Amino acid sequence: MFCISFALAAIEMSPTMATVVGEPRIGKYLAQTAENSKVKPLTESEISQRLQALPNWNRDGQTIKYTHEFKNFVHAVSFVNCLISPAEKAAHHPDILITYNRVTISLTTHDAGGLTRQDFELAETISKLVSEWMPGNVCLVVEGSG
Q1: Which of 19, 25, 103 is nearest to 65 (CA)?
Q2: Is 11 in a helix, a strand, or coil?
Q3: Cα–Cα distance between 84 and 101 in angstroms, integer?
Q4: Alpha carbon 7 to chain centroid, angstroms
Q5: 31-89: per-residue pLDDT in tens?
Q6: What is the Cα–Cα distance from 93 to 118, expressed in whole angstroms?
Q7: Coil/strand/helix, residue 28
Q8: CA–CA separation, 14 and 136 (whole Å)
Q9: Closest by alpha carbon to 98, among 119, 115, 74, 114?
Q10: Which H or E run contains 24?
């Protein structure tokens, strides 16, 4: 019981945001979590409409997926590194599967229990990255930006 009381004593609450004394990143995380919980799943009609604007993306239940084949493993991993900053910036992270030279990207919003505008916005960003990516690209990775 002492540990629980101690932990609760370290949290300061305000109407808009909770922060932990001496740890502002936790307050930012709690605010993002509260904001993400407001994200509503898209309707079937909205999903179909948005999916039409994303060639090469396919729906698999409550997930949209894209697979791209690169020349080799090094190119595949290099491309995946280019996904870090956009995913961190969006505070929305794809599931990524690398099978030698093939990269499969899956997007869903777990907190909303389905597909949301966040998934389609990140899919658009990823599609643009794929179209602009060239072997030898080195992507700037900004750590802790999300």
Answers
A1: 103
A2: strand
A3: 18
A4: 29
A5: 555 455 458 999 999 999 999 999 999 999 999 999 999 999 999 999 999 999 999 99
A6: 10
A7: helix
A8: 48
A9: 74
A10: helix 24-36
